[in-house]
Design a protein that fits this description.
The protein is α+β, with helices and mostly antiparallel strands and 702 residues long.
């Protein structure tokens, strides 16, 4: 729930005069001196207030989610359960009936806005459980019609508030202090109201700090408990009737558990502090502080923040910051914000991305994080055989699934989407295209994964509101590529090795792709601009060199040195063959000899060396120019091909200015990186000598 006032006239500070209508210190009995508190009954209380009555013992038993305890309570309250079922059935039945009549009378378009407003009213009357579902849907402008989107977005923070008098009483009871002892000022009306509670702006009497005071709605625990019991029952019926492979009840339980944790503001405060510790240091990210000493199960105090909704300001740079922060949450630490709807993400007035409302958080275990990264890698590189195995690791497929059939089906599903390039892959489209295959091969959505999917889908929805062509997976992949190249995890290193080598052959194109994508993993505005406008050879060389010389780049450095050794060895053989060929052709009355010291493996290594040199020097265009000038083609004549390969390496020698530009990078490196660079020639020479010696011995004795 947002703790900011999302309006064009935000509150910046408390004024010195009482004209701002803040509650001042009153004499007993307590009275509002500057304004009369709201005493009217909100729609939820009016329509669903009969759900609120729980004994103290029943309420205490529902602090943590337990389907069995909820069922035991409402077995003793069959009339309330029956009344709720009738209320839900008749309310939605009437609305769908009106929609059906609109279709029959061909007036659906005219009544669209009216029905959207009616649906929002229905959800507010039914309460928090239904509002939470609508909040997730309202974050997908690509799936929801605009009229419904406008109405459902109001559920994020503009729900009718409950009585301020009730809220102030709750604060005093929960904290055990009078309002005037806690605060020197407090707003007489809530500045924001959402499904579980509402927020007041106040100033702490002792410190003078401006804070947000979040107060829980009365009756939400009882209402949510009963609605989850009903939804859980319906999930079981739907699973059996529809023969779903996913355990819908387990998914409901996962969502319900997170909702129950969200209703305990003490857990939310601790979540906020943990979130601040893990991600508060990220550039352009702001996490407000929590006041644990003034927080209970139903009241929360946190630092006040000024800003506007991220979806309203359309700041695509902050969306990128959000993507990077989400990457850190999901794939670095595994502790993530599971409810990033537009009401919970703000742009502060100093240009930072502010996260608020830490009630619904998720945990992503290490094995699943690695499995998710591997799945993304294999998807982008079209390795659908490995992708089918990843789905087993993630729990999306049973171990007994036929891997070959699944791989073939995934190829059909994802081939077209991936062919557009990683930057054009839509997370929403992937899920949509996967539907039929999921049913056929008994895919299941693990309970832990449902919140991950929701978090990513909602984030993409927010981004789409700023840029309809935005793709979260395309923006996240550079960070995934960078992590794969730098992570010391044995599982990810094994995945990288398998990705780069097939049947012992080095796939340089995949390394090129990973390195080029990892260079896009930036957040600073200046660097983003540089990335787009100044991607010259010097920048590329410095980035790659700096990375490979660091400790994190050790694994990739070892691969590069080994491949360079293979390539230089092949170049030596190609040079010897060239000299032999030239000498032979210069002798009269001798024909062209097809004898060569080069093997097919050597020619592959020579091509790899060429690609590596182009990669490091940012000279891809030279290869194209050489082919245009010399007519290099994909000829099957091996003897001619390797001669062309060796000549391509020496084509267009670098100018003195280019060489100096490259060498000028070395003094810019950190001292420890310069020392590492000086050790490379001896390491490379050692491997080259070892390889040449082994080949010589092999040819002599074999």
């Amino acid at each position: 729930m947002p703790l900011l006032l999302p309006s064009a006239q935000p509150i910046h500070s408390f004024p010195a005069t009482p004209k701002r209508h803040f509650r001042s210190k009153p004499p007993p009995p307590r009275a509002i001196t500057c304004a009369t508190p709201r005493l009217d009954v909100d729609a939820f209380t009016k329509k669903s207030g009969y759900l609120f009555d729980l004994s103290a013992m029943e309420a205490e038993s529902l602090i943590d989610y337990s389907p069995s305890r909820i069922a035991a309570i409402y077995r003793r309250k069959p009339l309330i359960l029956l009344r709720r079922l009738i209320q839900i059935g008749t309310t939605f039945g009437k609305w769908f009936g009106l929609r059906y009549i609109d279709n029959l009378m061909e007036r659906s378009d005219q009544m669209f806005k009216v029905r959207a407003a009616e649906l929002r009213k229905i959800l507010v009357e039914l309460g928090p459980a239904y509002i939470k579902i609508a909040q997730a849907v309202s974050s997908r402008p690509d799936l929801v019609p605009p009229s419904y989107l406008d109405e459902l977005s109001l559920l994020q923070d503009r729900i009718t508030p409950f009585s301020t008098e009730v809220a102030l009483d709750t604060i005093e009871k929960e904290l055990g202090l009078r309002i005037d002892e806690l605060f020197s000022e407090i707003s007489p009306e809530p500045v924001a109201a959402a499904s579980l509670g509402q927020v007041y702006q106040a100033r702490l009497r002792r410190s003078g700090q401006v804070v947000a005071v979040k107060v829980q709605r009365p009756g939400v625990q009882a209402a949510i408990s009963l609605d989850i019991l009903i939804l859980r029952f319906l999930a079981g019926v739907v699973k059996k009737a529809g023969k779903f492979n996913t355990d819908l009840q387990a998914v409901t339980d996962e969502w319900a558990s997170s909702l129950f944790r969200e209703m305990d503001y003490r857990k939310e405060a601790n979540n906020g502090l943990k979130f601040r510790h893990l991600y508060g240091g990220i550039k352009d990210v702001f996490i407000p502080n929590m006041y644990l000493e003034h927080t209970t199960r139903r009241v929360l105090l946190m630092e006040w923040v000024e800003g506007q909704k991220l979806s309203e300001v359309k700041d695509l740079f902050l969306v990128e910051v959000g993507v990077y922060c989400s990457f850190n949450q999901l794939l670095e630490n595994g502790f993530y914000h599971a409810d990033p709807h537009p009401g919970n993400l703000f742009r502060t007035y100093d240009g930072k991305l502010a996260y608020i409302d830490f009630g619904m958080m998720g945990e992503f275990k290490q094995e699943f994080r690695d499995g998710f990264i591997e799945a993304c890698l294999h998807l982008v590189n079209r390795d659908f055989d490995a992708l089918s195995k990843d789905f087993v690791t993630l729990g999306l497929l049973p171990p007994t699934a036929e891997k070959e059939a699944v791989s073939k089906a995934l190829t059909g599903v994802f081939q077209d989407a991936v062919a557009k390039g990683v930057r054009n892959i839509s997370f929403g489209d992937l899920l949509e295209n996967l539907g039929t295959t999921m049913y056929k091969f008994k895919f299941r959505i693990p309970s832990y994964f449902s919140l991950v999917i929701r978090s990513l889908a909602v984030l993409e929805g927010i981004a789409i509101s700023s840029d309809p062509n935005y793709k979260v997976l395309g923006s996240t992949y550079p960070w995934i590529a960078k992590k794969v190249l730098t992570d010391s995890s044995p599982q990810l290193r094994s995945s990288l090795q398998a990705l780069l080598y097939k049947d012992g052959v080095f796939r340089i194109d995949r390394l090129e792709s990973l390195l080029s994508e990892s260079l896009r993993a930036r957040t600073e505005k200046a660097l983003v601009k540089t990335q787009r406008e100044e991607a010259n050879s010097r920048v590329v060389f410095k980035e790659i060199l700096s990375f490979t010389l660091t400790e994190k780049g050790t694994f990739v450095r070892e691969i590069l040195i080994e491949e360079f050794a293979k390539g230089l060895d092949a170049l030596g053989l190609a040079t010897l063959d060239s000299l032999t060929s030239a000498a032979t052709t210069s002798i009269p009355f001798t024909g062209f000899s097809s004898f060569s010291l080069m093997t097919k493996e050597d020619m592959v290594n020579l091509r790899t060396l060429r690609r590596l040199l182009f990669l490091l020097a940012g000279l891809e265009s030279n290869e194209k120019r050489f082919k245009e000038v010399n007519g290099v083609s994909s000829s099957n004549n091996d003897q001619r091909t390797y001669l062309q390969e060796s000549s391509l390496i020496s084509y267009r020698p670098a100018s003195v200015s280019e060489i100096l530009a490259i060498l000028s990078i070395i003094p810019e490196l950190q001292p420890e990186l310069q020392q590492q660079l000086l050790r490379l020639p001896s390491d490379l020479a050692g491997r080259l000598i070892s390889r040449a010696s082994a080949r010589t011995i092999q040819r002599i004795f074999l």
